Amino acid sequence: MKKSFLLCIATILFLAGCSMGGIEEVDEITINEMLSFGEVKPDSSVTITDAEDIEILIEGIENAKKEPGIADVVDPEFELLIGERKFYLWFVGEGSVMDQEDTHTIYTLKNGVREQFEEIVLQEFE
């Protein structure tokens, strides 16, 4: 009994460490088009206020899969400002996100999420 309880706790801690999780609920997400790391394209800021789109973006980031090793990536395409947190976003391949507080780690979006992100983000820039 004690052994299975410890195994359960270890599994939960492992899974929690494999995703970004913990993004606060917000009423809006600001998206900036990027020129390079830390350099926003002038006059490219849009704000998403649709609750369903916000939920898709937050859940997609929270459920992204942590990739092993240290990230070595090209300049990000977009920056997402969610409450006090900032994320870089790429649509290349499966799609990736990076928390600006931990630029050594990259997370891959799960199947189908990149397409949802792309639809939400790109419609705002039309």
TrEMBL record:
It comes from the Bacteria. Keywords: Signal. Transmembrane segments: none annotated. It comes from Planococcus salinarum. This is YhfM-like domain-containing protein. InterPro entries: YhfM-like_dom. Residues 42-121 form the YhfM-like domain. Residues 1-21 form the signal peptide.
